[in-house]
Design a protein that fits this description.
Layout: H1 18-24, H2 46-65, H3 70-90, H4 95-105, H5 119-133, H6 136-160, E1 164-165, E2 169-170, H7 171-191, H8 197-216, H9 224-242
Antiparallel strand pairs: 1-2
Length: 243
């Protein structure tokens, strides 16, 4: 018995062959951003943390340890704040500028900052409001809490965090924030503010809880650089007024 071979049918114009169709499913998607520049919440960015502690911490401690008043500080810092926020906003209207910012400052930025206001702009807003509205001790405390607490929460949360809580945070990170802010705040309230130890511990610890709560708030379009100094500073102001 002879076997006949049937020639394969010619491809229909405009129709993909099965082999071509199958290979199309194996196309590797291109990342939206250069992986080296892409900033993810679940990783520790040492450059950002060092800048956070040194830059913001220096501002808070300098303010507390000098005779500069809140209004004097606002007058000094407002022009710099306006210039920084303006440049930050301009990149949304100038694509080439935004591209350069992403290239040069990517390691310092989180995902949401790539196409939104940076955390530094949010800090300028909250810092100026705190200096203008809160008593010196409360305003300085809120700024120091932001400088030290946020990096501490991030470091501990990424390294050892297991229990998830609202706001994408971890219980372990929040406890680290609370402990460090309470210890630092107590020392400042006693050494700079002249408060009795018991009163200092009370104000520092409750304000630290407020700072942790500010990080939990599910405000997608508001950075914790804005909420932490304002909420902790407001709570410190209230407690200090009651002592």
């Amino acid at each position: 018995m002879s076997t006949q071979t049937h020639p394969s049918a010619p491809p229909v114009p405009g129709q993909r062959s099965p082999r071509t169709t199958a290979s199309a499913h194996h196309v590797t998607p291109r990342p939206l951003l250069d992986p080296i520049r892409q900033v993810k919440r679940q990783s520790i960015h040492w450059k950002r943390k060092v800048f956070h502690v040194v830059g913001i911490g220096a501002a808070g401690f300098t303010y507390l340890l000098t005779d500069v008043t809140g209004l004097q500080a606002v007058a000094i810092l407002a022009p710099f704040a306006a210039a920084f926020v303006l440049l930050d906003a301009l990149r949304f209207w100038i694509p080439s500028l935004n591209k350069r910012v992403k290239r040069d400052f990517g390691p310092f930025m989180r995902d949401y900052e790539l196409d939104g206001l940076s955390g530094s702009s949010w800090f300028w807003f909250s810092g100026l409001i705190s200096l203008a509205v809160f008593p010196k001790l409360a305003a300085g405390l809120g700024i120091v809490y932001l400088a030290l607490g946020d990096p501490a929460a991030s470091f501990v949360g990424v390294r050892w965090g297991r229990v998830r809580i609202p706001g994408g945070k971890t219980l372990e990170g929040s406890l680290a924030l609370g402990a460090l802010c309470t210890a630092t705040g107590t020392a400042l309230l006693i050494g700079v503010g002249g408060l009795p130890p018991a009163s200092a511990v009370l104000v520092a610890s409750v304000s630290a809880v407020a700072a942790a709560f500010a990080e939990w708030l599910p405000l997608k379009k508001v950075d914790d650089n804005f909420t932490v100094p304002l909420l902790s500073g407001a709570v410190a102001t209230l407690l200090l007024s009651l002592l």
